[in-house]
Every structure is written in C-alpha cells, then in structure tokens.
Amino acid sequence: MTTVEAADAAARGTVVLIPAGALEQHGPAMALGTDLVRAEAVVAEVASSFPGRVVIGPSIPVGVSPHHLRFPGTVTLTTGTFAALVREYVTSLHRHGWTRFLVVTGHGGNNAALTTVAQDLLVSHPAVQFAWSPLTALAGDAVAALRPSAVHGHSGEAETAQMLHLAPHLVHTDRLEPGTTTPDQLDDLARVARDHAQPTLTLPYDRLSPNGVLGDPRRATADHGAAIVKAIVGRITAFLEDWPAP
Amino acid sequence: MTTVEAADAAARGTVVLIPAGALEQHGPAMALGTDLVRAEAVVAEVASSFPGRVVIGPSIPVGVSPHHLRFPGTVTLTTGTFAALVREYVTSLHRHGWTRFLVVTGHGGNNAALTTVAQDLLVSHPAVQFAWSPLTALAGDAVAALRPSAVHGHSGEAETAQMLHLAPHLVHTDRLEPGTTTPDQLDDLARVARDHAQPTLTLPYDRLSPNGVLGDPRRATADHGAAIVKAIVGRITAFLEDWPAP
Amino acid sequence: MTTVEAADAAARGTVVLIPAGALEQHGPAMALGTDLVRAEAVVAEVASSFPGRVVIGPSIPVGVSPHHLRFPGTVTLTTGTFAALVREYVTSLHRHGWTRFLVVTGHGGNNAALTTVAQDLLVSHPAVQFAWSPLTALAGDAVAALRPSAVHGHSGEAETAQMLHLAPHLVHTDRLEPGTTTPDQLDDLARVARDHAQPTLTLPYDRLSPNGVLGDPRRATADHGAAIVKAIVGRITAFLEDWPAP
Amino acid sequence: MTTVEAADAAARGTVVLIPAGALEQHGPAMALGTDLVRAEAVVAEVASSFPGRVVIGPSIPVGVSPHHLRFPGTVTLTTGTFAALVREYVTSLHRHGWTRFLVVTGHGGNNAALTTVAQDLLVSHPAVQFAWSPLTALAGDAVAALRPSAVHGHSGEAETAQMLHLAPHLVHTDRLEPGTTTPDQLDDLARVARDHAQPTLTLPYDRLSPNGVLGDPRRATADHGAAIVKAIVGRITAFLEDWPAP
Amino acid sequence: MTTVEAADAAARGTVVLIPAGALEQHGPAMALGTDLVRAEAVVAEVASSFPGRVVIGPSIPVGVSPHHLRFPGTVTLTTGTFAALVREYVTSLHRHGWTRFLVVTGHGGNNAALTTVAQDLLVSHPAVQFAWSPLTALAGDAVAALRPSAVHGHSGEAETAQMLHLAPHLVHTDRLEPGTTTPDQLDDLARVARDHAQPTLTLPYDRLSPNGVLGDPRRATADHGAAIVKAIVGRITAFLEDWPAP
Amino acid sequence: MTTVEAADAAARGTVVLIPAGALEQHGPAMALGTDLVRAEAVVAEVASSFPGRVVIGPSIPVGVSPHHLRFPGTVTLTTGTFAALVREYVTSLHRHGWTRFLVVTGHGGNNAALTTVAQDLLVSHPAVQFAWSPLTALAGDAVAALRPSAVHGHSGEAETAQMLHLAPHLVHTDRLEPGTTTPDQLDDLARVARDHAQPTLTLPYDRLSPNGVLGDPRRATADHGAAIVKAIVGRITAFLEDWPAP
C-alpha cells in the first residue's frame, strides 16, 4: 500500500486492523514470534473477507511479556511503552481520517495494556472507536474439541494446533513435549494462581512450568488448528459486520 | 493502626488488603462513591475473618472512569497515574517487609490498570506477589438469582442490591429508576459493544444509557445484596486461605 | 452526593474542598492516618458553615512522606505522582464546570507538590483557580497557648491535641511519650536542619527523633485541640468568604 | 575549573553551591535575568568566604515562572522539567563523590520544585544532603529598613535595591516606576491572594500588577541593596558554618 | 528461533541485529513500508555472511516520521516512545546475556533517537555496546554512480533502485514520477533547509515536494540497487568483522 | 533586555539564538564549561552582525555528556530532560510571538537530542521553525589548516585553538598535553568506534583516551582559533541571511 491507496482507504471509512504479537518463549518447539504469526494470519484472513472495507495497519511484533522474561529470547515492553506505541499508531492514523481501529492480539499479555489505551482514548480522542480482540479465547468450543489437558494454555494444545495449521515450518514437531498438564505438578503458589481465575494473581512462568509449556502440545493437529482459526475468524468477522460506520 | 502495629504486622507476613473504588456517576439514586463503599465493606468483612493474618492498607477512592466522565461529578485518573499510585502504595509497603498484596476493587474500570501493575512489578519487584479482585463478578450465581434485566450492569440490580445491604443511607430509593434494560434500547454502535464481549469495544456510558444505569435497580433488595456480598467474601476468603506465605 | 446533586452544585459555582492526608508514622500512639482524619474533620466543619456554597471532593489518603519511610507502615507517593493525582482530580471536576478548588492538607509534606500543581495549572488550565491550605500552621496563637516544647512539631503537642479533640479513639493515650523536645537531643546535622528554617535542609525523620515524635504529646489536651481547630476553621472560612465567584 | 580541580574538590568533601534564577519579566526597568544575576553574585560572595570548602556548580538560568508568562520575554519550565534538571545536576555530581548541595535561588517560584527534589532524593539517593535557600526572604530586617510599600515584592523596593548594588548597569533607572503599591489597587480576587498568605492562591501576575511590579522601585538605593545582600550572605554563611561534613 | 536456540546464541556472545524501518509515504509508487523492507533485506544478507555469529532480533516497523505526517498513511512515533521501545528491546535481551546490538535503520528519521538511546545506555547499562547504522548513507560511491538529480533523496533514485532490486513487487513502476529535482523548484524556506546541511533546519516534507519525492525515481534500475545494497552490506560486514567480543 | 525590549523584538519577528554548552571534562587544561564559552562567544559575534534582527535567548549550560561521566566534574542530563528543557524554552518564547529559533551548540553530544526536539515540534508546534548548529564541524577547512593529529577531536587542536582565541584565561597552557593522537594507541574496541563513522558505536571517553583528550592541544594557537571562529560565524551568518521571515 502506498500513500495513494492510504488516502483512498481513509476517505472510504475503512476499519484499520492491527496485528499484535509478542516475542517470547513458546517452549522448546515453537518460534519466539508465534503470537504475531497467528495474529497476522487471522488478520489477513479477515481482511480477505472484507475487500475494500478494512485495511491492515502496522504490526506490533513485541508485546507485554514480563512473565516469560526468565526464558531466553523473550523481549518485553513495559505496559506504559506498549500503550504509548499503540496510542501513537492510532492517533497518527486518525489524523488521516480513520476512526475505527481493531487490534488483534495473539498474546493475552497485551490485553490489559490494550484496555488502558481504549480508556485513555475516550478522553483524549473521543472521535476514535478503539476495539481489540484476543485469538484463542474466541474459539472456546473448537478448543474444547481438542480435549486439552487439565492444565493447558500457553504453547499447549490449542496454540500449537493453530501453528500446525498456519505455519507448520515454525514448529519443531520433534521437540514437542508436554509441560505442566495436571494441577498436582504445580506448587502451592502456582496452584492458587491457576485455581482462582479471580482474585487474579500473576506469576512468572517459570513458577508454572519448567519448560514454559502448559498442556501437551503433542495432541495438537493441524485440523484442530484449522477449526480454531475458523472460529476466531468467524467471531471477528461477525463483529466487523455489526460495527456501523460513524 | 500505628507504626507499632504496622511493624508487627509486617514482621508476621500478613497480607495487605487495599480497597479501591471510583468516584463516578451511579445513576440518579446512588452515591458517586458507591464503589469504594462496597470495596471497603467487603475488605472489612474479609479482614474480620482473618484476625492477625491480614491488614487493611490505604484506600484508593478515585479510579479509572473515563467512560463516565460526561456525567457530572465523575472524577477519573488516567491509567498511568492510577497505576503509579498503586505501584507506589505497594513498593512503599514492600520496604517494610510485606510481600503479598490484594487490591479489592469495587470498580471494573480499574481492572486493566491493576493488571498492568501486576505485570510491571514482575520485573521491577520480583519478590512482590500482587493480586487483585473484582466484586460483583465473583458472585455470578447470587446475581443470577436476582433475575436481572436482559441488559444489566452498572448501577443496576446487583450493584444496587449490594448498597441496599451495605449502606442503605446512600441510596435514594425514591429515585431508583430503570436505565437501559433491553438491547433494543441501544443504538447500533452500543449494541455492538454489548453483544460482543470480545472483540471488546469501549464506549462512553452516555452511549449506553441516558441516565447512566444498565438494568432496573428497583428490583434490587437488601437480601439479594447480602447474598451477593456473602458470595464475594466467600470467594476472596477461599483465595486467601490458599495463598501460601512466602 | 449523586450525579444529580453534582450537576446542580457545579452549576451554582460552588467551591470544591479536597481533604488531603498522609499515611505515615505518627509515633507510637497515633494512627498512621492521622493527617487525613484532621483534614476531613476541618473540611466537614468548614462545609457546614457554607451550606450550598461548597462541596466536598474526593479525599487524598496518601501523600508525600519520604521522610517518614523508615518507620513501618508509612506509604509515600513520589512528588510527581501526587501532583498528577491532584491535577487529575481538578481537571476532571473542571470539565463539569467547577473553577475554584481548595485542597486542605493535614500533612505539610504535601505543600510543595500542591504548589507545583498550582503553578502548572496556570499554564495548562488558566480558568482554574487552585488554592491549598495547611492546618496547624494557620493556628499559631492557639498552638502557642499550648506552650509546646522547645523542639516540637510532628506528632507533638499541637497535632495530638487536635486528635484528642477530633478523634480520641485514634489516640493510644497510654502510649503517648515525648520524642525530641530540646535541641541538645539532636546531633549536629539534625540541629542544622532545625535551627535554619532557611536555607532549608530536608532530613529523614529518624535523624530527628528515634520514635518519630517532635515535642511532648502528653501535654496535649482536647481543649487545646478544640481551640486549634477553631482557629483553623476560622482562617479557612475567612478565606472562603473573601474568594469571589468568577 | 577543570576536571583536575573537580577531582580534588570532590575528594575534599566540599559543598556544591548551585545558583538558580529565572528568565522572567522584572517590570519595565530591570533585566529578564535579574534573579540569576543576584543568585550568582551571592554565591560568589559566599564562596569567597569559604576558600577550599565550597565549589560553585553549574547555574540554572531558567526557572519556574508560569505566573509571569503573559509578560513578553518570560520563559518557564514546567515544575517536572525543572525538578528533573536539578536532580540530574545533583546525581551527576554525586557520582564524583559530592554529598552536600545547596541551591541558592534568586526566584521564589523555584522554591516548591526544589522542595520536591529534596523529598524525592530522600528515597532515591539517601546519601545526598540537599539544601536550598531563597535570597530576599533571608533578609527580613534589612528589607524592613527600606520601608517598602504596603504591597511590595516582585521587582519592588528590595529586589531593585539588590540590583542597584550588584549590577546597576542592568537597571534602567529612568524607567523605574511604581507598580501595585496599595491593596486598594487590587481587584477582589487579587486581594484574596495577597491578604491570605495561607490558604495560598496562586494567580498570574497580570492580575496583580499591570506593569508586573509590586511596590515602588524608585525608593530603592544601592546602599539598601548592599545591606540586604550582606544579610543574605550572612545567613547562608552561618548555615554553611554549621553544616557538618558527612 | 525458539527459546532453545536463543539460550545458545546468547551464551555464544552473538551480536543482535535489529532492523528498523518506518511506515511513511514513499511517493505514489512505493510502499509505505519500504524502509523496513530494505532494512530487513540487508540484515538478512549480513546475517547469512556470519553464520553463528549474529542473530536477528525483532523488527521495528514504525519509526520517527513526523515530517511525512501530512501524507496519508504515515504513522509516526514520538522520539521518546521510539527510544523507549529500542531501549526495552535491548535491555530485555541484555538480561539473557547479549551485550552487542546493532540497529540497522532503513529510515534516517530514526538516527537521532537511536543516538539518544546509545547515550542514555552509557549510564544506565554500561555493559551494553549499542551501535546503529543507516543504509543509503553507507553507499556514497554506488549512489553517485546513479548520477542522481541535483536535489535527490527520499523515494528518489537510490531508494527506488534498492527496492527494484530487493522487492520489485512493491514498486508500482508505472507510477514512478519525479518529485523535486532542482533547487529552483523549492521556495525560499525549503532552499535554506536543503542548502545548509548545517545549521540544520527540519521541515515537513510537503514543503520540500508536492508528491513527497526528492529526485527522479524513473532513473533507478535494479542493477544500481544491487550495487548500493552490496556496498551497504560490505560496510556493515566490515564493521562486524572488526567488533571484538567483550 | 527587559520585558519591554522583548515585546518589541518578538513583534519584529527576530530570530532567537540560544547558546548551548556542556559541563564536562576538557582534559587537564581546559575548563569544564568550555563548550558554553565558545557557543556564547559565537552567538554574541553573530548577533553583533545582525543588529535588530536576532535576539539572544537563555543559555543552556549543561548538556548531554554521559560519555564523559567517568571524569570528575562532568554533569549530564538525560536526553529526555535536555530535550524537555529546550522544548520548554522554545514553546515559552513562541507564546510571545517568536517563530524562528537557532540553537548553537558548542557540544556535539547535544546534536541528537536537538534533532529529536526539531522532530517532535513538527507535530506539536507546526508554526515553529527550529534549527540548530554545531560549531567546529562548520569550519572544516580552517581546522584542516591546523594539521591536527591523526586522531583528534574533543579538547584537541581545534577546540583548544578556539579557547586560546576566545578565552585564553580559561586555558592552563602549562598543562596542555597530548591525549590519544594515533590509532595504535586505541584498543580494538575503541578503534572500531573511531574507524567506522557509520555504523556508529558510542563509547565512554575513558575507553578512547586516558586524559580525556583526542589530539595534541599543544599545537593549537590563538590565530588558528580565530580562523576557526571566523569560519563558524560566517556559516551561521550565511544561514541567517538566507532564512526568510515567515
């Protein structure tokens, strides 16, 4: 896209889709950049369903990952810097006329900072409509169909399945190995954090899993991944269909 | 509590409970400070169940309320200032030896900023364990027993019930009136925000309800409020029982 | 106060009174929250003298107390965070139409940061009139009548007297004990800080007094406290009488 | 001074004197930089009394002057930037071994921000001893001897006298003219600000005086200025005599 | 790369190469993301010459582009946010053991902010060695061989040539058109900015060229682009050869 | 200059010249404040050539000098604080009507932060034209005439020559001694930093020279200094002649 197409897209009131990821450990078998890969793939698929009605904005390759920082290769932004980055993406594009923004984040650690951006924009830029979306959380039924481990999540069944579908070359299938899969593998503190969704206690991931994995990624298949991605794309598509132009 | 008791409590490894509220519109019938009143009441009740094992820290009377700012009397902090405030409460107390902190927030608008605090503390103060908890979201069953309106939430059945139980003198019962109670009262944009929990779109409250209320607070009773509070206290108490001392 | 009364009060051009305190050591006998207790009591009394002409804004329970941080229980904000907090209280309320603000601070450590808020608002919000007031410093004659120790001040005669009058249940009278009362109890450095009001040298309080007290609080009486509070309220009331509506 | 002398001075435990001024209107007759001129002169005189025991640090030519910003030529720093500047001067020099710092400010608008620096350093750099001093406020008797106007202060009798003594070439004596000299020249709001030292209300100077002057500078003489400066130097010298090396 | 390879690479003392770009107008014919495309291509080529001695870190897709903000599609970060982002990339990776970092920026607007990062890291992280490099500026001779226009630069001969070589599918060759090519096309102000490299005057690009282009991109060829890229890679390779491991 | 002359100068559209320096080691023979001395001298000379067309703004005595911080006496600002300072100078003066600003910096360490100010002002204050200039870099031919050492720069031939011309009393000529003068005196890392202007690697100065000097200042003469200053003044004068009033 050049400035010519940008001028046109802004004038037409398109929605800006911004893929956000993280650069953080995904266990011994998956790439550090897994979250962005998934976010960009979903955004691309969504965009292809809305020709002329959405544009794809700049990616956010690094997110809020302090909980993974003890695993080599992880890069994290402070929440303040991440929020400033997103806000400046949005306010720059808003100058050109765009008013609707949807950040699609492959990394749940970004959720809170994205919410703070939404809150602060209400006061500083009331004409902006800022939405954000997770990935896996949109596909509850498809994930359940995987019959994941009792403890599952980061780099586990669902996330690995998505990668086997979207970017199998970024999965070292020979290295897939289970992480923490049952509550009894957790110590007392980690069990509190997992058992109680609320109150919420945030722990570094090395307290939750020695290899950084929650669940058993060996159970993932590309087919399950395709189903999960389809569910995600469906939910985001439905949202965009409903979102009225200002 | 004087510095003498504080020294003792810190040495014993107590958990610090910090009530957080908001100063924001709660419709025509309830006080601006409703959220802090509920948080402080819950904290007091929890504390009474754990004599000698918890202490009550300083309250946070103003929160993150940009979505209510078009209603008179609402005061909001930016998310950055709110987070700095919480962080400085925690790091001050951590100097005295406390390591476990639980912020109990009566206002859901604070949730994201509290999460950012938890994330940033993982790197800056790894010895701190920082947890936070909402109120009403802990009491799903008790709220459902109220049979709330199709659209319900802020200043609606559940919140009003809590106040009728905890601080009836702060409810002008003669002014209780329904706000938005059904989806058809919402315009297209507001309906998107309510229908899709995710993707998440944050709107100012005047787009959701002319009087700032979601639901019909006239259906609230003190008995329902007591049940909700009991459920909340039970959930927080269970969490504290499980939380191991470092 | 609900949003209904807030709308009315803002329209009438009322003055917003904001009580500010601190959470810091007050010696072995007085509560950590002493400064807010006094500020809120004075504000309430002032407000009762101006029915319909003032409103009470949100309290600031924690202030700038780095000099007390070596005493357990003390919580401090950095001066930047404290100033941001006050500024955001004020600018939020200014959106609703209020233009006159008076912060009444029970803690002298907040004075400088309050002044910086006043200064920065002159440029950023020229329509705001921002005033602040200390407590004890307004009651010189009434304090002198107490015949305080040669060295007196924090948690000493005057402050204890106010608490005996306003909130005797927050004073452990059996624990009242003198702190530093004469210059010869100070070391060379501390003496410089006390002898020279200007140049001004700020020291941590453990350099000034082992128990955090300056003066002999046993000499305080509730009657003296009543006289001090009366003088304070009188001075603030006189100020408000003179302050013209914009 | 080169790095050689700096190394030596730091090793000997000298006190660093930092002159601070402002660039702001001083009425039609005096230079914008008046405050720094006076501060540097006082610092030089003090330094000459303590050979080998003090060093003169870098000047701060611009201060906190938002209240003068409506008068052409005034430059102001926000309080946060001013405080950061002072803090970075101090922490840079502290790396070389200095521990005692005295900022001498010719401008009262800097007082609050200097206090916030002192407060924040207590926590971040506990080995630093940070003091600051005003000028004219140290010379109450000498100023009284001038029999200044009922309303006097900025660019008035005392400040002009100092300049006539220290830097007569920076005073356009032919342009000296009275500003506001009596309370009846003030409007209601300005009178509140002047009559009540506390509560403190900060106003822009154009509300206090059309020409930016408080008092009648025509009554100033160089002799009075010499007496004021002598008193100031005496007070600062006495402070330094008492200040023990760490 | 997974966390396994990252752990190994950090232990071996590899250099981290970070490609930085911009999202900004590149005239009617080239993609907004041109600068990142070129930076990533150069980094990939350099990395292939140093197997096992360098790693490629996360990209920076958006840079400091305020001068292009009047052209649709341009996104800019403030210099402070850009610097924070780079600093947090570096300090995160430094925790894992890396000490040498080279940011390769395809966008000259990032140069100053990169330098500020280098300066601040000298104090905050003295064990880090932080280097950065431009692209086109390294290839003076190869650019001269293009015989570019009298006025040339952004989106002109050299930049277009690189893209024709590296990513021809991102160049709309049918839209290539000259921008400002001779000084007489500039107005007085723009001529000052172009004629005087120093003193340096920064202007928005719409003052320099109506279509955002400096030079005549039609003269660019893929062969020239290959020569330019080869020169760039050569210079960076030589630098890396010389850079000793700590 | 008083506020009267300032009002007049602003109305006439004068250019504001701001001298910026540093407080940093300049070897055993030259004053810490050398850079400001040179900048102020150049600014004064330039101003004398443009009577009534320029004004001299407030000096910046301390700059960005982290690379010299291991040498006693050096004071540095972080790049963010330096930039805030410059920005607030400029925006204060812009309120009075000035639109053109030229910062003349005697210290190259300030260049990057000055550029970031220029960039950020493009968005925040589009009516401001902000330029900056180095000193010695403007006088390439005159410096070459000095036939400086193979390695030369900070506190070397050219800088010393300027000081011998402008402020010989601030040069201890008996202490002038060579620093690093040939590449073979550098270790491997330092050689990389010197040999490769780009990629750019910033090192602390103690890695480059034990006494902080690059070059042999004994070869400097006042005549060479005069020639260098003349060249600098000529370049800046030419720039100002060309700079059109808005």
Description:
The structure is a homohexamer of 246-residue chains. With 246 residues, chain A is an alpha/beta fold. The first copy, chain A, has one domain (3-238): 3-Layer(aba) Sandwich (Rossmann fold). The first copy, chain A, is 41% helix and 9% strand. Chain A has eight helices and five strands. The first copy, chain A, has helices spanning 3-11, 34-49, 79-95, 111-124, 140-144, 157-166, 188-195, 222-242, and strands at 15-20, 54-56, 100-105, 129-133, 200-201. Chain A has a four-stranded parallel β-sheet with strand order 2-1-3-4. In chain A, strand 1 (15-20), helix 2 and strand 2 (54-56) form a beta-alpha-beta unit. The longest helix of chain A is centred in the last third of the chain and has 21 residues, at 222-242. The two termini of chain A are 24 Å apart. The model of chain A has no long low-confidence stretch (mean pLDDT 97). Chains C and D meet through helix 3, helix 4, strand 4, helix 7 and strand 5 of C and helix 3, helix 4, strand 4, helix 7 and strand 5 of D.
The span between the termini of chain A is 24 Å
Total number of distinct structural domains of chain A: 1
What is the spatial order of strands in the main beta sheet of chain A? 2-1-3-4
Approximate shape of chain A: globular
CATH-assigned fold name of chain A: Rossmann fold
Secondary-structure class of chain A: alpha/beta
Radius of gyration of chain A: 18 Å
Give the averaged pLDDT of chain A, no decimals.
97
CATH class of chain A: Alpha Beta
Oligomeric status of the shown chains?
homohexamer
What count of helical segments of chain A does DSSP give? 8
CATH architecture of chain A: 3-Layer(aba) Sandwich
